């Protein structure tokens, strides 16, 4: 018996390859589909993940071909330098044929933009209040938007919270559209202190950030194009780009178990356990997660992860709350 699992929502991508371009269906054996494990909306923990089971590492591609392990799949598609280069070229080539618009980078699902931005805003506000002194209000904040596409996330989310945002995107006509969208003439009033600063047309797997520049590195709907080795290499390089106390936010589609490979654009949707094992390999601390809500049911689940290079010191707000709520004392 099989069940139908729909491909994940695609989004802007920063690196090697773009996420799935449109919803379609693939058959997934019921035994694989039922092995998912649920998380609460918010979850804090250290990133201690044991060895993945054979069930968890098995996966399939968009034609229904099954792989016994992720290693088997990666060997087939990226087993030597020539294959790996072709993997990344194919992804870029696909997105070079996609319209440079919000609807284009979201695979025809432009209407999910509002729900996406809303839940991301809730998540980032909670992180600011817990990890930044005074919620980050008393210092200039800088973010990197990985897989920025046409600047959708920068314009609708990040510029509301950061003084500067750098955009990283390998597809030139997407980045050109982002530059135009974020120009002074098209950004809301008051944006003189909240601006898009740098536009890097570089694949994610080749990018090395400036040391200590960023408070937050935002990675959304793009990491599925990186091989496991390049995933680990990217985060290890990117750690140096964070300021002290800075963190990563990764927002991605989640497979119920193992992985699902989209052959058209060379992207992989990983399970939660698969991601957690990669975080462990990166030496990252998984501080908090949040599940995206309000997306169409035919799409993969989407989860946000807050990741830190070290166990963070959480800001205590108890004293300030008491002070704010205490009646004034008249002498």
What does this structure look like?
- This protein has 331 residues and is an alpha/beta fold.
- It has a domain at 90-318: Vaccinia Virus protein VP39 (Rossmann fold), CATH 3.40.50.150.
- It has 11 helices and 13 strands.
- The strands form 3 sheets. A 7-stranded mixed beta sheet has the order 7-6-5-8-9-13-12, with helices on both faces. A 4-stranded mixed beta sheet has the order 4-3-10-11.
- β8, α9 and β9 (242-254) form a beta-alpha-beta unit.
Topology:
Blueprint: E1 2-6, E2 25-29, H1 30-33, H2 54-57, E3 59-61, E4 66-67, H3 70-78, H4 81-96, H5 102-105, H6 113-131, E5 142-146, H7 152-156, E6 164-168, H8 172-181, E7 195-200, E8 214-220, H9 228-239, E9 242-254, E10 259-262, E11 267-270, H10 272-282, E12 285-291, E13 301-308, H11 318-325
Parallel strand pairs: 3-10, 5-6, 5-8, 6-7, 8-9
Antiparallel strand pairs: 1-2, 3-4, 9-13, 10-11, 12-13
Helix pairs in contact: 9-10
CATH topology grouping of the domain at 90-318: Rossmann fold
Helix content: 25-40%
Strand-and-helix sequence, N→C? EEHHEEHHHHEHEHEEHEEEHEEH
Strand order in the largest sheet: 7-6-5-8-9-13-12
Mean of residue pLDDT? 83
Structural class designation:
alpha/beta
What Rg, in angstroms, do the CA atoms define?
20 Å
EC number: 2.1.1.244
Keywords: Methyltransferase, S-adenosyl-L-methionine, Transferase
GO biological process, one term: methylation
Organism: Linum trigynum
Give the tags:
seven-stranded mixed beta sheet, alpha/beta, four-stranded mixed beta sheet, Rossmann fold, globular, about 20% strand, about 325 residues
């Amino acid at each position: 018996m099989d069940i139908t699992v729909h491909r994940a929502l695609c989004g802007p991508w920063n690196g090697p390859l773009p996420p799935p371009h449109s919803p379609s269906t693939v058959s997934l054996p019921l035994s694989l589909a039922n092995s998912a494990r649920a998380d609460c909306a918010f979850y804090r923990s250290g990133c201690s993940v044991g060895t993945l089971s054979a069930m968890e590492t098995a996966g399939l591609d968009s034609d229904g071909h099954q792989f016994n392990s992720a290693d088997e799949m990666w060997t087939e598609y990226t087993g030597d330098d020539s294959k790996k280069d072709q993997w990344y070229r194919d992804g870029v080539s696909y997105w070079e044929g996609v319209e440079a618009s919000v609807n284009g980078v979201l695979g025809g699902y432009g209407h999910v933009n509002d729900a996406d931005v809303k839940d991301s805003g809730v998540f980032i506000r909670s992180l600011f209040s817990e990890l930044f002194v005074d919620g980050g209000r008393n210092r200039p904040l800088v973010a990197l938007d990985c897989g920025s596409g046409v600047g959708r996330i920068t314009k609708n989310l990040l510029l509301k919270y950061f003084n500067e945002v750098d955009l990283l995107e390998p597809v030139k006509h997407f980045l050109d559209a982002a530059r135009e969208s974020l120009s002074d003439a098209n950004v809301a009033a008051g944006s003189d202190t909240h601006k898009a600063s740098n536009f890097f047309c570089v694949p994610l797997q080749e990018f090395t950030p400036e040391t200590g520049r960023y408070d937050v590195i935002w990675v959304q709907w793009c990491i599925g194009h990186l091989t496991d080795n390049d995933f680990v290499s990217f985060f290890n390089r990117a750690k140096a780009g964070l300021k002290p106390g800075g963190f990563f936010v990764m927002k991605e589609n989640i497979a119920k178990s193992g992985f699902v490979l989209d052959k058209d654009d060379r992207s992989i949707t990983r399970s939660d356990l698969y991601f957690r094992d990669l975080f462990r390999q990166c030496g990252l601390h998984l501080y908090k997660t949040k599940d995206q809500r309000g997306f169409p049911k035919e799409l993969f689940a989407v989860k946000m992860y807050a990741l830190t290079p070290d166990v963070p010191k959480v800001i205590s707000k108890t004293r300030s709350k008491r002070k704010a709520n205490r009646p004034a004392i008249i002498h």
